[in-house]
Amino acid sequence: MEKASALHRLGEYLLLMKKSFTAPTSWSMFFKQLIREIYKLGVDSIWIVIIISIFIGTVIAIQISLNITSPMIPKFTIGFTTREIILLEFSSSIMCLILAGKVGSSIASEIGTMRVTEQIDALEIMGVNSANFLIMPKIIALMLFIPFLVIFSMFTGILGGIMASYVAGGMTPSSFEYGLQYYFNPFYIWYSIIKSVVYAFIISSISSYFGYLVKGGSLEVGKASTNSVVMSSIMILFADVILTHLMLT
After folding, report:
1. Coil, strand or helix: which one is 10?
2. How many helices and strands in the chain, by DSSP H and E?
3. pLDDT at residue number 194
4. Among candidates 209, 213, 194, which has minimal Cα distance to 96?
5. Burial level of 77, CB count in 10 A (0-12/13-18/19+)?
6. What residue ranges do the domains of the chain occupy?
């Protein structure tokens, strides 16, 4: 029964994505919606990305410095390891898991509320492709802006590590900065950006799916919001394994 339900949901998801990705009836309206969604989903998330990244970068640097006690391990390893953690996993995967909670729940709640208040039905009656009108701008907006959020996260996370090198014991700013430059691989930045674009599609499309197919009242909207965050997080972790294996091995 669970398998049938999972296959049924997958079919609904694929059909909804097919319905969403069609040529807009009005390109001018589409671009207005796109700009609005970029601001609402992307720009409004900048501050939470910056704040979380600074504190996480600081904590990573402090914890590594506290655990490297052997005199055989050079101190620049702290900066090197902090950089690798932030570039490879935190600024893409972990940050997108956080955004799945903020952005994903917002998308599911917005579309779900429109469904239960019959606004989507009204659009359909007027001959508007509601899936295309509501969902495609959200997906494209998040996929376009997510690289900027990742870059902000990388920069502020490393900045947090540099700040920690000035106040925490066990490392010096010069050794930390040397570690940041040691064996730097520029591909890791592109690797994180590519991963984040895939995650942005996962977050926006899955959240839109759960919101669009809500049945019932406001209680069901809350359940759809929760389910969208849970499913998006699971699929992000699954995609992380696949993409890491394909791009780094």
Report:
1. helix
2. 12, 0
3. 94
4. 194
5. middle
6. 28-248
